[in-house]
Amino acid sequence: MLPETVQTMIAPGAPVGAQLHGILRDLILHNDLPPGSRLSESDLASRFAVSRQPVREAFIKLSEEGLVEVRPQRGTFVRRISQAAVMDARFVREAIEADIVKLLAAAPDAGLVEELKHQLEEQREAARTDAARFIKLDELFHKTLADAAGKGRAWALIEGLKVQMDRVRYLSLLRFPMVKLTAQHQAIVEAIGAGDQTAAEAAIRGHLREILSDLPAIFNEKPEFFDEPGR
């Protein structure tokens, strides 16, 4: 069942299945549809005033991302967060982004550094008042690094892998260490600006390992959101 506040208007001219996928994906990532929530193909088609085919397409895509499980004769349900998937995504992300910052530090760009410093200011403001906005700014920061290194396609790969990580981030908004993460971002920017590849790599690796210390505490607080480790 969707929250009553969900916008049900479908924009004309854009693929309906892709729009439904985006809407449902965001609801799952933000935990507005918690694990175990049942998604009805017919109810969603009626709610969005569309045929059942694009709803089916959205379900298939969400299933491929590990966000829902289609149970024959029972329905489609939001899956629990896979701790194994979180750890695998973090591992891959660290490997890719470590090389990205080394590339940027090898040839520092003053314009990029200034843009990143501007983003840091926005992050500091959000850290005081708006955790959800901070997460979006954090996403922009990392995407900016990838784009500046000419690795936009690598970032697209990361985006596809880290959906379970993002669910954890939104689940832990109240304990999200925004001030600490901003300081880590600043260390990355300073290392890039100084042309220090070793420091840039160390800073990004330390930053992306933050979840390793946070995940056990989040699991203990919200065990109903997670699969058992290793599953």
What does this structure look like?
With 231 residues, the chain is mainly alpha-helical. It has two domains: 16-78, Arc Repressor Mutant, subunit A (Orthogonal Bundle); 83-225, GntR ligand-binding domain-like (Four Helix Bundle (Hemerythrin (Met), subunit A)), CATH 1.20.120. Helices cover 68% and strands 4% of the residues. The chain contains eleven helices and three strands; from the N terminus they run H-E-H-H-E-E-H-H-H-H-H-H-H-H. It has helices at residues 16-29, 41-48, 52-64, 83-106, 110-129, 131-148, 152-161, 163-171, 178-193, 197-208, 210-221, and strands at 38-39, 68-71, 75-78. A three-stranded antiparallel sheet has the order 1-3-2. Helix 4 (83-106) packs across helix 8.
